[in-house]
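for the writeup, i need someone to sanity check this before i put it in the appendix. the sequnce is what the collaborator sent (i think, or maybe the updated version? ugh). structure was predicted straight from it, no edits. if anything looks off just tell me and ill rerun, i have time this weekend
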Amino acid sequence: MPQGSAGRVSKVTGRTTATRVGPAPALRIEPTDLVKRLVDAAGTLVIKDPDAPTRSAWRSAIHRAVDAGLVPQGQVLRHAGRDHGDLTILLVASEDTETALTFTPILVSDRLVRPHPAVVSLRDAPDRLRVSRAERSRALRLLDALFKEAERRGHVATPLTDRGDAVATVAVDGHAYPVQIRELATRTPHVPTTQELAQKQRSPWMRIAEYDYLPNGELQISLDSSGRGRPTAWADRQRWRLDDRLAHVLAEIEARAVDDEERRLDRQRQEDERRKRHREAIRRAYARLIEHNRASALRAQVDAWSDVSNIRDYCAAIRATHHDSASRTSSEESWLIWAEAYADGIDPLRRSVTGPDDPPPDAQALRPFLDGWSPYLDNHEPLRSVLGLQPDDDND
């Protein structure tokens, strides 16, 4: 494995892939180029068994093309081979999206046999299912098939009891996605009952419903909206049953996990880079603090030396003016003697001339030199550790 990379086993593919530590891969495919190549290739582009960085770059280009609105009107982008094998990218008419790609079906049992724990919790709390009594058994069997296949692939299905309409989550590589199931309803005009009409007459402000919604036996499984134009719901239709779309549901969950993991790694890279810049700012600030401290000491020494020279020149001028010691009073002579002794006492040249000790890395002392960065690290790491200094309990 290359230096600077870490091995990681993906639960989606089951293979060990390299997780980069540091800058993002150099390979970048522009979404405009992707769409142009698809148009030139009559809507089908096949990349033969790409390596992980290349596959990731193509997937990134697909999502950026969708997000940027580059897909021609009336068409959508789809791809197969997200994690292994050939990567096939399709530009298809929007009405063909349900049949553009095929998946290995997930078989649904005719009866519950050793149901998944999440299904057991729903069976024991039927009010959690938004389906009629007639469709309850089928709804449980659909979820059982979905959850068991998810766990066969190494994912985790967990029941939910406090997440609104979601009945469980399916987690892939640490990314969890709430799953909802409900029975669709047919809308019919509502015929007011005699009781409703009588109540309306007594309370004119009362509103009688315009429509009735009756469960129609059609089930739908849905995921939270991702906000990125991805599929969110699969249901019974005239051309297929929901049983035939369970593989699509699980494939979408896995695709979202791949995308979310890429975004997590990107955020991690950005955060690592920010922390690196933060640590570098603290090191630069401490170097500037030391420089400031030394410059202040040097100026103090130069000022003292200048004061000594001026005092001695002043005393010499007095003695030259009043060269006859007999003409000076005792108080004047005492003052000159004290002034000359004082100059000797503050003369920096009469003792070893050295620089000051470096100041401790105090947070408040560093703040003026940090250019807006905080003197405190996110992980509460001591400043001395960042600066490579020995611990000092008195200063940390």
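Residues 265-386 form one domain. Residues 1-26, 96-100 have pLDDT under 50 and may be disordered.
thx in advance!!
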